[in-house]
Write a structure and sequence with these properties.
Blueprint: H1 3-18, H2 23-29, H3 34-41, H4 49-59, H5 75-88, H6 91-105
């Protein structure tokens, strides 16, 4: 298993879940199979440039975003993203976020 393939698979999974898509939905959008998407997300499948392009299109992101993992290490960017999510959340989600954050931080 290649570290690069594992990173790509993890990024695809993260983006897919953020878009609230199933593996089947992504497979359909990328003209692929759900089993293949599962293998890809585990870093067990090789990909072609054409498939990377279809995955990005299906996820609604730039192709380059599939290879961007720096955000996982940059806390400043994570803080910005958390702030953005909070600012877009409704009251019910704010209350839930508060309870979760309080439990994690304490």
């Amino acid at each position: 298993m290649s570290t690069e393939l594992e990173r790509l698979g993890k990024r695809v999974r993260t983006l897919r879940k953020a878009k609230k898509m199933t593996q089947e939905q992504l497979a359909t959008a990328a003209d692929s199979g759900a089993k293949y998407i599962s293998e890809l997300e585990r870093g067990e499948a090789n990909v072609t440039i054409a498939l990377v392009s279809k995955l990005a299109e299906g996820l609604g992101v730039a192709t380059s975003e599939l290879f961007e993992n720096a955000h996982e290490e940059d806390c400043l960017e994570l803080r910005k993203e958390v702030s953005r999510m909070i600012s877009e959340a409704d009251d019910e989600k704010i209350r839930l976020l508060y309870r979760v954050m309080k439990a994690v931080v304490q």
